[in-house]
Amino acid sequence: MSDQKRVLVTGAGGFIGHHLVTYLKGKGYWVRGVDVKSPEFEATKADEFELLDLRRWDNCLQATRGVDQVYALAADMGGMGFISAHHAQILHNNALINLHTLEAARLNAVSRYLYTSSACIYPEHLQEEANVVPLKEEDAYPAAPQDAYGWEKLISERLCMHYYEDYGMETRTVRFHNIFGPLGTWEGGREKAPAAMCRKIAMSHITGDPVIEVWGDGEQTRSFCYVDDCVEGIYRLMQSDFRDPLNLGQDRMISINELVDMVAGAAGVDVTRRHIDGPQGVRGRNSDNTLLREVLDWEPRISLEDGLARTYRWISEQVMAKYGKRELAEV
Ligand code: NAD
Predict the structure, then answer these.
(1) How far, in Å, CA of 297 to CA of 240, rounded?
(2) Torsion angles phi and psi, residue 118, rounded to 5
């Protein structure tokens, strides 16, 4: 067998996992991808892709066999609409996935394990204003995440920490802040805000109806990070010797209304926002990237305008392919 490093990416049928497989293949790794579904929009570049439900212990043992490193991305997740409506399912499924995958990796003598956490672990009371103070890693405690999704992420972060303390297993933990880009879910209820806005604006382009629905008053704020920066950041963290949780996101905060206007700008259309009731999550959230810069000597560099233009282009192609002809016939 060659000395090519062997890695496992869980959640490789999903948005970030699929991009990460492509990135790692570009770096020369042998990659096994595992997920309950194949990538939806493009064939995987993984050397081996196994359809396995990682809530099951035996499947986790199978998934982690014979690899040096694990990038653990599998999760039952979605945008605000999904996360705020499925607390029991999310906590149950994600706890099983993470408890079993980490322990199976230990038994299979995996040397490094990267866990993908989320900005959703931060306490709700630090995110009550739109003009929020950016969140530092140490702000996580005393813990008070808004949703079950964040609580489970926090517990799994701690599990990784204890696996290092008790077993000496090298673990890395990254906290993503709203990752977006092409080849991600753009309809069906699990899509996140940037993809949803791209879809709505692409649809308005087809139908000629300029009205775009926005949940709440649209003044809630977030930062958004393009997926190419995300996978590079994940990789850099895996190579580093940093064992504590680390933010990975952009630190440019915008409102959802501004996001709509930027996507409309990328599409070259004028839209009118209609504000409706809907889940909004915390009022404001931004990443403090001080530690990220210090640890990785790097930070995300793809501008929001550039990332949104690339994302809009891809989503509008999907919308046109699926709905274009039918809608145009109806107009
Ligand atoms: P995604 O939903 O596109 O990918 C997750 C994948 O996990 C899916 O393909 C899903 O089928 C798979 N999965 C779910 N249950 C499984 C099971 N029982 N066994 C095997 N696979 C299973 O989400 P993503 O955006 O690519 O997120 C990847 C990771 O990053 C997740 O852990 C997510 O919580 C985390 N994260 C993402 C963001 C973001 O903005 N996208 C933000 C914070 C954290």
Answers:
(1) 11
(2) -150, 155
Q: Does domain 181-223+252-285+303-325 have CATH number 3.90.25.10?
A: yes
pTM comes to 0.96
- pLDDT confidence tier of residue 327, bands split at 50, 70 and 90: low
168 phi-psi bin (left φ>0, alpha ψ -120 to 50, beta other): left
- Ligand 1 pocket test, pick from 77, 183, 187 with the greatest ligand atom count within 8 Å of Cβ, gives 77
Spell out the domain ranges in the chain. 6-179+226-248, 181-223+252-285+303-325
The tens digit of pLDDT for each residue in 1-40 reads 467 899 999 999 999 999 999 999 999 999 999 999 999 9
Write the CATH number of the domain with boundaries 6-179+226-248: 3.40.50.720
Residue 260 CA, ligand 1 centroid: distance in Å? 25
Q: Rg (Cα) of the chain, in Å, rounded?
A: 20
Which contacts (CB < 8 Å, 24+ apart) does range 321-330 have? 323/203, 323/206, 324/206, 327/203, 327/206, 327/207, 328/206
As given in the structure block, the two tokens for residue 168 are 């000496």
How far apart are the C-alpha atoms of 94 and 72, rounded to whole Å?
A: 11
**Number of other residues whose CB lies within 10 A of the CB of residue 133:** 12
Is 70 strand, coil or helix?
strand
Q: Could you tell me the CA-to-CA distances from 138 to 96, 180, 267 in Å, in that order? A: 26, 25, 39
DSSP letter string, 200-239: HHHHHHHH---EEEEETTS--EEE-EEHHHHHHHHHHHHH
Dihedral angle sign, alpha carbons of residues 28, 118, 305, 309: positive
Residue 113 is given by DSSP the state E
Instruction: Render pLDDT for 34-43 as a digit per residue (tens, 0 to 9).
Output: 999 999 999 9
Q: Please identify, by atom number, the ligand 1 atom nearest to the C-alpha of residue 55.
A: 18
C-beta 11 within 6 A of ligand 1:
yes
H/E element, 197? helix 193-207
In sequence order, what are the beta bridge partners of 274?
Answer: 213
